[in-house]
Specification:
By secondary structure, the chain is of the alpha+beta class. It is built from six helices and five strands, in the order αααββαβαββα. Helices cover 48% and strands 18% of the residues.
Length: 170
């Protein structure tokens, strides 16, 4: 077993049946607009890096500040030996992988990352709850693998559309 499920559940309050896990309580509910906010911010930053900086109106400035405070990388890692996938978030993926690899008795492989609002992690956990093994670990079933494949091609927006049933193609 990858982690002690009892310890992990109690220590990190990952009891979904008891409501929102403690570490997610401070998150604002995930909304579709958050995906667009992140995409707009990344686009603005890319334009600025190319020397095409523009002046932001006060409304966009506030929106971008709020988005910058909540932007993170959502990662999908797997342990092939256990057929489990961990869905987590980190601002430093390399450091997080190093930590997980140091405590895992199994090989850990990074499958995908998407840049998104930190609430997107909890949204994914809720949408994939039927595939949940324990904590942030999910069975590598068809739905979880579809989410990962979509994340590689279409990012957070594609994953959201797939999970909301807005698109049927993978």
């Amino acid at each position: 077993m990858l982690l002690d499920v009892e310890l992990n559940s109690k220590e990190h309050n990952f009891e979904y049946s008891e409501g929102i896990p403690a570490r997610f309580k401070s998150y604002e509910p995930f909304k579709k607009d958050m995906i667009q906010d992140v995409e707009d911010l990344l686009s603005f930053q890319a334009e600025a890096e190319r020397g095409n900086a523009r002046t932001l109106n006060p409304k966009d400035r506030q929106r971008f500040i709020k988005t910058m405070q909540n932007i993170t990388s959502i990662y999908f890692i797997c342990s092939p030996e256990t057929c489990l996938v961990k869905i987590g978030r980190s601002n430093d993926i390399k450091k997080r992988l190093k930590t997980i690899r140091s405590i895992s008795p199994y090989e850990i492989t990074l499958l995908s990352t998407v840049t998104a609002h930190k609430s997107f992690e909890y949204y994914l956990h809720q949408k994939l709850i039927n595939s949940r093994s324990h904590g942030e670990w999910f069975k590598a079933d068809d739905r979880v693998l579809s989410v990962i494949n979509i994340s590689l091609d279409k990012g957070a927006k594609g994953v959201f559309e797939y999970l909301e049933g807005l698109t049927c193609s993978i």
